[in-house]
């Protein structure tokens, strides 16, 4: 033992002063207390759901499937044919509006019809006190730059709409709504009329019945009375 101490003097350390080789390090970074998330712009924009209380936005079927434009059983070919008369005729009927909305979802352009519906609801406000919060929600959701559902509007229309946000009127979104209406009428509406699901509604007919079944007749002896038998000539 003494020899080992002479060879390695650095090991000559009293046991009472030994220190552990590894030390448990306290974490240098303290965990910050959990901060309650503040309501962001996205949460504020969720207020739009109050404006879109329409049945077509709350159905349980798969809206994205082209075959589910509408329930064929509830729409007759005659009714579907009327949708092709005009775009206004299509939107004026609930089933037509529902079918067109689902079609736009398949094209990922449903923000146009949602904006149009929000504007229709906005103009039906019963008091001027309802206009300001509704106008702010519509503007932040559909019109302002980088809005989550920004619609395609020209600069002049956006500017005019933005300037009227201080004291919104029932006509505040008329210009923007008309622009989006024309866009859907000239672009999306013709494609809707050419779509396979809509064409299938026009061709839907009740199942055709087969030819009437002929009832078999039983012959009796009386049916042959008075009939002379044919005699073959050999």
From TrEMBL:
<dbReference type="GO" id="GO:0009968">
    <property type="term" value="P:negative regulation of signal transduction"/>
</dbReference>
<dbReference type="InterPro" id="IPR044926">
    <property type="entry name" value="RGS_subdomain_2"/>
</dbReference>
<dbReference type="InterPro" id="IPR024066">
    <property type="entry name" value="RGS_subdom1/3"/>
</dbReference>
<dbReference type="InterPro" id="IPR016137">
    <property type="entry name" value="RGS"/>
</dbReference>
<keyword id="KW-0734">Signal transduction inhibitor</keyword>
<dbReference type="InterPro" id="IPR036305">
    <property type="entry name" value="RGS_sf"/>
</dbReference>
<dbReference type="Pfam" id="PF00615">
    <property type="entry name" value="RGS"/>
</dbReference>
<feature type="domain" description="RGS">
    <location>
        <begin position="86"/>
        <end position="202"/>
    </location>
</feature>
<protein>
    <submittedName>
        <fullName>RGS18 protein</fullName>
    </submittedName>
</protein>
């Amino acid at each position: 033992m003494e020899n080992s101490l002479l060879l390695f003097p650095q090991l000559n350390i009293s046991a009472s002063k030994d220190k552990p080789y590894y030390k448990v390090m306290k974490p240098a970074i303290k965990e910050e207390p959990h901060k309650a998330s503040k309501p962001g712009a996205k949460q504020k924009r969720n207020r739009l759901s109050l404006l879109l209380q329409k049945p077509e936005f709350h159905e349980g079927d798969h809206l994205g499937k082209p075959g589910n434009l509408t329930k064929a059983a509830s729409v007759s070919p005659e009714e579907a044919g009327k949708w092709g008369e005009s775009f206004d005729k299509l939107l004026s009927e609930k089933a037509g509006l529902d079918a067109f909305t689902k079609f736009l979802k398949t094209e990922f352009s449903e923000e146009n019809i949602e904006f149009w519906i929000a504007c229709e609801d906005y103009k039906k406000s019963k008091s001027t006190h309802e206009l300001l919060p509704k106008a702010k929600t519509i503007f932040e959701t559909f019109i302002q730059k980088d809005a989550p559902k920004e619609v395609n509007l020209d600069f002049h229309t956006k500017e005019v709409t933005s300037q009227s946000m201080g004291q919104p009127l029932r006509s505040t979104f008329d210009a923007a709504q008309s622009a989006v209406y024309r866009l859907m009428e000239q672009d999306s509406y013709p494609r809707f009329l050419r779509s396979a699901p809509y064409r299938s509604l026009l061709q839907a007919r009740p199942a055709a019945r087969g030819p009437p079944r002929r009832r078999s007749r039983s012959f009796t002896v009386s049916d042959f009375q008075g009939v002379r038998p044919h005699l073959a000539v050999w």
